[in-house]
Amino acid sequence: MSNETIRIGVIGAGGNTTGKHIPGLQAQPNIEIVAVSNRTAESGQRVADQFGIARVASDWREIIEDDGIDAVCIGTWPNMHATLSIAALDAGKHVMCEARMARTAFEARAMYEAAKRNPSQVAQIVPGPHTLAFDQTIIEMIGAGYIGDLTAIDARIYGNSKFPDPESALHWRHEREYSGNNIMNMAIWYEAMMRWVGPARSVFALGQQVVAHRRDDAGRRVAMTIPDNIDILCEMEQGGQMHYAVSAVLGHAPVKSDVWIFGTEGTLQLIEGRSSPMALFAGKRGGDGMTEVTIDPAKRGGWRVEEEFVNAVRGTETITHTDFATGLRYMEWTDAVTLSIRRGERIALPLMNG
After folding, report:
1. If residue 307 lies in a helix (H) or strand (E), which one and from where to where?
2. Average pLDDT, whole number, for the chain?
3. Which parts of the chain sit beneath pLDDT 70?
4. CA distances from 239 to 38, 149, 236 (A)
5. What is the sign, positive or negative, of the torsion defined by CA atoms of 195, 197, 199, 202?
6. Which residues pair with residue 55 across a beta bridge?
7. What is the DSSP letter of 30?
8. In whole angstroms, what is the distance from residue 273 CA to residue 90 CA?
9. pTM value surpassing 0.70
């Protein structure tokens, strides 16, 4: 399909889809978004009007079953990712699926198997964007031996954490039916850390629901089963350990994110303050401390998810951010965190072989 028009259908058109995916796809040459299906016909029509999409499908199956559509962009909540991705791949369509990959590793495994049995189809999970500008530099520094052997990772991910508010709105991310075992943004950052230092071999976690309940639209009190404050310990596959804290309920948290990578010869720190941009610092054994790393503009990555997807469909690029195999690895880790919290024990990875 190097020069042919790629016809795309959109299933689920929330904030990321309308803010990034649809504009990003339409910016690529010889691309036509021909149909959109959303939670309601009315919301689908608003998206169609906004982006000049010709058809609003009343049901997602219309898009999957349309032989004139080459690829689908899936922007639904995680509860539908497996159903839609598997159906689309088995119908001969390329798939770009919003993160997180699925609700559970079981669903992610089914998606991965569908991608394997349809090797001619592109299968992409939208990556976490937070560290893209720094990834290549961190990977190259570690690969060149800057830190020596990995000793420990200390990560604090607080985002816009604030004092607990039991009156805060109930969001779909708070409901396991829709979000599954995904907890806050822990898997997005783990995905980035896998790029730098590889996966974990075991997990031990403690979590709590500081905000124990919220009210739904009908005023009913809904018990929260997904933690809003969590501490995770990992043994890393290449050696070394990780302490990883994620919280949405810490008042006056000092940073949005602060990740230290300690090695036998050097240390890296990636930090984003409450009001300062993300920056990378580094220091060597025997040096004068930590100094900011200037990122080579040629190595400063950025958001190009839609471009990568289109190029992969055309056969001129392979998916690196993020293929289904990588998505399955972070979903197994995500499940391991939940299992550890429930059982009070260390969980070995991978959960399943093969």
Report:
1. helix 305-314
2. 96
3. 1-2, 354
4. 45, 8, 5
5. negative
6. 35
7. T
8. 45
9. yes
pLDDT, one tens digit per residue, over 16-57 is 999 999 999 999 999 999 999 999 999 999 999 999 999 999
Residues forming beta bridges with residue 270, ordered by sequence position: 259, 280
- Structural domains in the chain (count): 2
Q: What are phi and psi for residue 11, nearest 5 degrees?
A: -120, 110
Is the peptide bond preceding residue 129 cis, with omega within 30 degrees of 0?
no
Check if the beta carbon of residue 244 is closer than 8 Å to that of residue 231: yes
- With respect to residue 313, please indicate whether it lies within any of the assigned structural domains: yes
Placement of tokens 């962009």 in the chain:
73
Burial environment of residue 139 by CB neighbours within 10 A (0 to 12, 13 to 18, 19 or more): middle
CATH number, domain of 269, equals: 3.30.360.10
Query: 177 and 202 share a domain?
Result: yes
What's the pLDDT at 354? 58
> Omega into 322 within 30° of 0, i.e. cis?
yes
The alpha-carbon radius of gyration of the chain (Å, integer) is 21
| Nearest alpha carbon to residue 81 among 95, 94, 65 | 95
